[in-house]
Amino acid sequence: MVQLSRRHLLFAAGAAAVVSMAGCGDDDADNKDLADNRVGAMDKYGVGDQFKATSAVSFSMLYNNHPNYPFKDDWLFWSELLKRTGVKIEPVAVPLSDYEQKRSVLIGAGDAPFIIPKTYHPQEDAYVSSGAILPVSDYLDLMPHFKDRIEKWNLQPEIDSLRQEDGKFYLLPGLHEKPWQDYTLAVRMDILEELKIAVPTTWDEVYDMLKAMKAAYPNVYPLSDRFGKPNPAGNLLNMLAVSHGLAGAGWAYQHTSWDANAKKFVYTGASDKYKAMLEFLHKLVDEKLLDPETFTQTDDQARQKLASGKSFVISANAQSIVNDYRPDMAKSLPNARMAKIPFPIGPVGPINPASRLENGVMISKKARDSKNFVAMMQFIDWLWYSDAGQEFARWGVEGTTYTKDSSGKRTLTPDVDVLGLNPKGTKHLQKDFGFYNGIFAYGGHLELVQSFFSAEEMEFQKVLNERPNVTVAPPHPLSDTEREQVTLWETPLKDYVYQNTLKFILGQRPLGEWDAYVTELNGKNMGSYVDVVNKAYDRYQQKHG
Amino acid sequence: MVTLDTSTPAPATNRRHGPHTSRGYRIFRVVNAVVLTGVVLVTLYPFVNIVARSLSDNASIVSGEVNLIPRGFNVAAYKAVMADPMFWTNYRNTLVYTAVATAVSLVLTTCYAYVLSKKHLKGRTALVGIAVFTMFFSGGLIPNYILVTSLGLKNTVWAIALPNAISVFNLLVMKAFFESLPVELEEAAAVDGLNTYGILLRIVLPLSKAVVATMFLFYAVSFWNSWFAAFLYMDRMDLFPVTVYLRNLIAGATDATSTGGGLGSASDVVQSAATIQSVTIVLTVLPILAVYPFIQRYFVSGVMLGAVKG
Amino acid sequence: MTTSDTVSPVAGPESPPGAASGTRRRRAGRRTWRQALRRDWQLYSLAILPLLFFLIFRYLPMLGNVIAFRRFQPGGSVFGERWVGLRYLRMFLSDPTFWDVFTNTLVLGALTLLFCFPLPIVLALLLNELRSRRLKRFVQSVSYLPHFLSIVIVAAMVMQLVSVDGAVNQFVRALGGEAVPFLQQAGWFRTIYVSSEVWQTVGWGTILYLAALTAVDEDLYEAARIDGANRWRQTWHVTLPGIRPTMVTLLILNIGTFMAVGFEKILLLYNPLTYPTADVISTYLFRVGIVSSNFSYAAAIGLFESVIGLTLVLSANAISRRTVGTSLW
């Protein structure tokens, strides 16, 4: 569950001026001194080149072991990787269940492997001040594919949002050509048809739909949501927040949101937009359209209600529809049909709220001293950021796991299955071959990202891809002392916001007391917090503007 | 007051009762039966429920049909878990780790508890203090990690057996027990010419079967269920105990997204989180339940061995 | 079956007759170290390995706690970068949220102690009254099944039980009342938490007491019966005093550790609406830790808790020695 919120910490909302940061702070004298670290590296390595180490090299890497495709050292992935790049990976295996904790201990103890993947921004912030991880922005010259993608896909603002106070960034994020919004609401389409309601496109239409459902089925709470732990109504609140122009709420709560008109940061939980959100949700609860237990029940309880017909609408992503809801209802409601509705539009208009950055790779500072350092950076660049590398990571070996026709369309070989696309296949792309692994295969060209999507998901994405991206907040990195102070304010603030969010929505506290609530937030250092952030923004503008 | 006694277990009707049991006592016995039945029901029900869920199909579980009896009976979840060779590797690891760790712990704890129970020993208070202090103060994760790594214990069974060898709680309970043993026994043995080691081995330990059995149970269960030490100090999947394996399985099953690498379709993901959790419980608890009856033997009443003068 | 040990009469200078007992304590106190070592070297030798354990695996890592007074940056020096003195101490002492969670920890800990301490004793006594040994074993084995259930499962079961459609509310509705969303009301959290703790630990807790009960001499019962005591008086005058050392030991230990309230279970059961009563130090630190990775802050609070725990144990021990005569040391 923590993983989910991590991913959505990348959401950025609000209109903001695009700040061009080209060429600031990338040069470093350190670069020139790489003469001792070039063993195994290619002399000439540029865009479109296949990386091949000039001598055998091996790198240690933290391996996040997913139980659905547990690590096997005889995977075709490893052997083919060795063949193409000459690189052997030495994995340090960590179970997915507690990956972050082990990573934190390893880095803290100084025992981290060179390559540390599956890192979601801003997790790398904590390690910046100690110098445990590499400021990768200093070494972009070694990574032509990475630079190329930033330029071609206009990702500079996103990259800048990763910068720390020194102007450098410390994480190599996964890059998407187009944002991929996965989460939205899923609705019982058969009920919609029965009640002759059109698929809602805005939040107001969602409200109308819920009302109609309630009128027809008075004993049911039409919307009973999940994803409530550890942040109540994690997805629902977040969806509403980004639709209203805030940076994020629920499981992706951002304390500050960028106000492009006023050109400063405001506190999310005290803004008028947040109040509007709460009013909407309060209306839903008041009219018995939203199940009050949404905010505290477990996922299983929510699924149970859906599967037994006690609710009709729930938060979903593509996988939960296929893996959770449809199998759940197979026996109890065989005529039911669940499908995602397009991300509802709010006051801010149609947007695609997803970020184009993904979880990424941190590099341990110790790697810098390795004689294979340059080779390693080139290798990472090829595997994670080149077209050939990403195709390899996702699809595998042409001829063995997939075939490509003349138009470039890829199909899995008949014997290979993944995501149920080839149910008769005896071998599994992930389990048996090691491809499409969440550590290596993410991001990339739109057509590559969507290459495994089902038809219905493609439909959904088509609508979203036509919407404008959400604009990225400008960088506002904090110094080490500031961060220490601010993080100690953050928890009480967030707790208080969440408590009152629930109280306002559930009617335990009348919305008329909103101003009193804002004053109480001020008493918890909200004002100081926003000041620190705005000062950091100004400071960064001055230093690196 | 010591007696020459046979060590057969107490007869079914113990000698506490006189020929005329009072009416009040009979009522009490009825109430007792009711209360204990309630206890059994309340504690047994969830377990039966879990076993039922582990044998049911996903749809039935989610719709809430499964109570005491499996619905949609299938052993697919068990098959899925037990068909994985890594599961058995990890299970074997658990057995080895538990055995080694329990042995180490028992030896160290017993020795130290015995020493602490000697009230005449000079420096005894300090020795006790050294142990008790560690109940409250400990280093953090990182210092412990660094220590174990620099000792070269990473990826070995000793990383699990050594850092948690003595539980001060168990130590103090054992010490209390040793202190309650009559001192005349040891005096007599000493007169017979036994040294300290002999007394411990031949006199004290045979008398302490109940407490040693209890400590064995406590340590064994604790190591059997532990996952954190292994998770922290092992780098390879084939070194993990089965608890880590199962914990990971649950996390993977409940992880609705798997960014980049997707979960399979309905046919791929063999079982829902609910079933996986249930299977986990059953597979980890069964061995303990199987072993406990053998240990229970030692909780026998009225055992007093030995001949003592006076 | 008597044990007739055929012991080879190894008479050593180490065990002069009469000195092996602890009956003459006053004389023993004046011994010098040299004499003590000479006399009890075997005992001390038994303590060497355990002492090594404590030294290496417990005391050595404790040095890491110095980061409570130094600025620690993950990835930097293990002992922190520089001294900051009492900064973190002051930080949390002046944080009003800290005192809220501290109070919650105390209350939950005290309630747990209040209920989870006596109930295993009661259950052990009740079990002891069962005539049939097989029945006794059966009930005993079943009663501690909950101990083996993982906390995740227990939390899920509890949440199911007290949900609006759960068994408890069904019962309430059957009595004509209205369903109560227990998990959303701070006032109910303590009840829910303590009840689940009792359920999970009462069976396991009887093990020690049952072991202790076996050590109570049968003949004492016989003597009491002859004196005319009924079962109740026998229990009061023979059984309870017989297991008193165990009870006192466990009580003192539990008092010392009562602040270590179940972190994982609370994490699974609480939500922002119940933070006022449910949020304890460990869960608060957990949330703070996610955003801040501030090991120093956590270390400072950890030290604070440790000092409290140690003080409690020392006090409990002293009081126990004075009132009941039994103590941990």
Short description:
The complex is a heterotrimer of chains A (545), B (310) and C (329). By secondary structure, chain B is mainly α.
| Low-pLDDT stretches of chain C | 1-26
Gyration radius of chain C (Cα, Å) is 26 Å
Work out the helix count of chain C.
16
What is the approximate shape of chain A? globular
Helicity range of chain C: 55-70%
Q: What is the CATH architecture descriptor of the largest domain in chain A?
A: 3-Layer(aba) Sandwich
**Could you tell me how far the N terminus lies from the C terminus of chain C, measured between alpha carbons in angstroms?**
35 Å
* Order of neighbouring strands in the sheet with most strands of chain A: 3-10-4
Q: What is the averaged pLDDT score of chain A?
A: 87
How many domains comprise the coordinates of chain A?
3
- The CATH architecture designation of the largest domain in chain C is Orthogonal Bundle
CATH-level-4 superfamily name of the largest domain in chain A: Periplasmic binding protein-like II
The percentage of residues in β strands of chain A lies in 5-15%
Count the beta strands of chain A. 14
Structural key phrases:
heterotrimer, A: 545 residues, alpha+beta, D-Maltodextrin-Binding Protein, domain 2, 3 domains, 3-stranded antiparallel sheet, 20 helices, 39% helix, C: 329 residues, mainly alpha, MetI-like fold, 16 helices, 68% helix, 0% strand, flat, disordered N terminus
